[in-house]
Amino acid sequence: MGKHEFTKSYAQSLDEKDELAHFRNEFYIQSGSIYFDGNSLGLLSKRSEWAVLSLLESWKALGIDGWTKGENPWFYFAEKLGKMSESLVGAEPGEVIVTGSTTANLHQLVATFFKPEGKKAKILADELNFPSDIYALKSQLQLHGLDPAEHLVQVGSKDGCIIQEEDIIEAITDEIALIVLPSVLYRSGQILDMKRLTEEAHKRGIFIGFDLCHSIGSVPHSLSKWGVDFAFWCNYKHLNGGPGGVGSLYVNKKHFGTAPGLAGWFGSHKEKQFDMEHIFTQAQDASAYQMGTPHILSMAPLLGSLSIFNEAGIKNIRAKSLKLTEYLMELIDNELKEYNFIIANPRDDQSRGGHILLEHEEAARICKALKANKVIPDFRSSNGIRLAPVALYNTFEEVWEMVQVLKKIMEEEQYKQFENKREVVA
Ligand SMILES: *Cc1c(COP(=O)(O)O)cnc(C)c1O
């Protein structure tokens, strides 16, 4: 069966062989706890802390001149961070800009690329996507005077976890004007085949964009090679950009010059911006889809974080992530047999993202018991426990330890001390 042994010393031997192990020292790890929630809020690194402090320093020392002077002139900071993100998504120069939030960027991109005409006036999404994306799509339809009940097509899932790509492809009819899908489903961690879906969309002359919130910093992408039209993501999950950190968007260079649906002066050509004309001259790359003044201090952590990612390499990060989750699944299979857990994420490397989804009818209070034992998972309604052992700062020993803790919780029925109900922020 499995390829792993189930002893602690074996876990330690995996850590000894791990070439990314030294990056753990770059992060603030809360002592005595096991943090498996880096897919919801990544941890602070020392490089990010330094980046925030140095941005504050530039404000202190330079005042308004910080826009054009200092080590990281604020006027070009969003572009600089966009450039540093290119390797993570497989972008060509100028295709990524750090701006807005996931939801705001989705609004911008739909406002830009959804052009309903006659019968071709529907948006295709899926039934399992994150609610904010769906709210945004519905409100965009309403802005066009279209009824979401008719014009938002959501591909269903048979088991509530997995979406069949065949079902998506079947739903790409000639009534669809735009497709927006997640790269990795936030709950089950399923990876959709972005290359294949992009080909299918383009065969029918339809634009397609992806929400990369759960793949960015965890799974490599080749957006440009695949010809994806646009993408957007937050930077505070696997990318450790900090709570409320600024998001990012990608626009394929074939669309450079397309007028932003929601224009603002920071989308201007940089040389023209301060001419203060009422005629908008847009930047000729993804910068054009910015709106107002960049949130410099909220972008600062990314500077440190992206330098870590570029040093570690996304392929190496993915390789370790797959090993961690594979090991975790084998331990669960072996150690927790009698406790009715269901591993609900896809098992194969090809379609498994950076986290594991364990389903259990007592999930909400099992999560509370884990937290009481200083293991940090996250709960996803109605019965899901997401566990993300993160390549840059988690260890194989922590994976082993976490499963022992969970086993003890189940053996001793510790979860019964808690209410089986989620917290306000779950
Ligand atoms: C985390 C997440 C969001 C969050 O959107 P914000 O605008 O950053 O609050 C949206 N969509 C998906 C798929 C997510 O995972």
Mind explaining what this structure looks like?
With 426 residues, the chain is of the alpha/beta class. The chain folds into 2 domains: 8-31 and 315-417, Aspartate Aminotransferase, domain 1, CATH 3.90.1150; 50-312, Type I PLP-dependent aspartate aminotransferase-like (Major domain) (Aspartate Aminotransferase, domain 2). The chain contains 13 helices and 13 strands. It has a 7-stranded mixed beta sheet with strand order 2-8-7-6-5-3-4, with helices on both faces. Helix 2 (46-62) packs across helix 10 (296-312) and helix 4 packs parallel to helix 5 (131-143). The longest helix has 22 residues, at 314-335. The protein is globular, with a radius of gyration of 22 Å. The mean pLDDT is 97. It binds pyridoxal-5'-phosphate. Pyridoxal-5'-phosphate binds at residues 101-103, 130, 132-133, 182, 186, 211, 213-214, 234, 247.
Order of helices and strands: HEHHEHEHHEHEHEHEEHHEEHEEEH
Rg from C-alpha positions? Answer: 22 Å
Structural class: alpha/beta
- Give the amount of beta strand, in percent: 5-15%
List how many beta strands DSSP finds. Answer: 13
Task: Estimate the mean pLDDT confidence.
Answer: 97
Q: Determine the N-to-C terminus distance.
A: 35 Å
**Largest sheet strand order:** 2-8-7-6-5-3-4
Number of helices: 13
Low-confidence stretches: none
Question: How many domains in all?
Answer: 2
What is the correct CATH architecture of the largest domain?
3-Layer(aba) Sandwich
Q: For the record, what CATH class of the largest domain applies?
A: Alpha Beta
Strand count, sense and barrel status of the largest sheet are: 7 strands, mixed
The CATH fourth-level homologous superfamily of the largest domain: Type I PLP-dependent aspartate aminotransferase-like (Major domain)
Helical content band: 25-40%
Spatial shape: globular
Ligands bound here? pyridoxal-5'-phosphate
Indicate the CATH topology of the largest domain.
Aspartate Aminotransferase, domain 2
Binding site for pyridoxal 5'-phosphate: 102-103, 130-133, 211, 214, 236, 265, 293
Keywords: Hydrolase, Pyridine nucleotide biosynthesis, Pyridoxal phosphate
Family: Belongs to the kynureninase family.
EC number: 3.7.1.3
